[in-house]
Design goal:
alpha/beta, six-stranded mixed β-sheet, single chain, Rossmann fold, about 25% strand, 9 helices, globular, four-stranded antiparallel β-sheet
Length: about 250
């Protein structure tokens, strides 16, 4: 199962305007782990995720997916292994219909006919939008677009699922549906989120980024019990761990 491993070695990224977004980031995520990457706005979370399947190239250091360093030569293999759901679904949806968007990945894997149909139908059903398959993506609500974007990745059956703010824009029912789906995904999961209750519920391990560096990496419960760390990194406890502001109880 080494192809499910994600490893960053001294990853560094500097944007063209000179902004240093990531500073010597190193960690290793093994097969089957569910890991949250959290931090305040501007900490480098989205920039980091965009390196995991080559949407951004590192300024320095190395990204490894399983046995492969991420290079131009290995990029097609890495993108078959790592499924990426962007924070903004409009960055992911570009075909005339929902069906064509979700079928795009399987077709590019060389699949045809009934297998493509099966994958598309399964992915749409898993996120609860099977009824939208003939709709144009630009006519969907924000939450519907988010779920279709997730389906475009699920249809490719990735070994590693990477998601940037997966619950953003979802109503409570869609959020519960997504969390159930993530629990059922048995391979490696990595996501950023400001939804810290979801992090607490789904991720045994959490990595905290602060100003482009790893401020902490450990069991999620320990992270959220470290008040000094949370204050320093401009984070708060999940709502489920916060006391009642009136009576002090939970």
């Amino acid at each position: 199962m080494s192809h499910h491993i994600v490893e960053l070695r001294n990853l560094r990224h500097v944007y063209p305007d000179g902004t240093v977004a990531l500073k010597e980031i190193s960690f290793r995520i093994t097969h089957g782990e569910s890991v949250a990457i959290i931090g305040a706005n501007g900490a480098g979370k989205s920039t980091l995720l965009l390196h995991l399947n080559g949407y951004l190239a590192a300024t320095g250091g190395e990204v490894r997916i399983g046995d492969y360093p991420l290079t131009k030569a290995t990029l097609p293999h890495v993108r078959r292994t790592v499924g990426m759901v962007f924070q903004e679904p409009d960055d992911q949806l570009f075909m005339p219909s929902v069906y064509e968007d979700v079928a795009f990945g399987p077709l590019n894997l060389g699949l045809t006919g009934l297998e493509v149909e099966r994958r598309v139908n399964d992915a749409l059903q898993r996120v609860g939008v099977g009824h939208l398959r003939e709709k144009a993506p630009y006519n969907l609500s924000g939450g519907e677009k988010k779920r279709v974007a997730i389906a475009t990745v699920l249809s490719m059956s990735p070994d590693i699922l990477v998601m940037d703010e997966p619950t953003s824009g979802l109503d409570p029912h869609a959020r519960r549906q997504l969390m159930r789906l993530l629990r059922e995904f048995n391979h490696t999961k990595i996501f950023t989120s400001h939804d810290l209750d979801m992090v607490l519920d789904l991720c045994p391990r959490t990595i905290v980024l602060h100003e482009g560096e790893v401020a902490a990496d450990g069991p999620t419960g320990d992270i959220f019990r470290d008040d000094d760390l949370l204050v320093r990194c401009r984070l708060e406890k999940p709502f489920s761990l916060q006391g009642c502001p009136i009576c002090g109880g939970r």
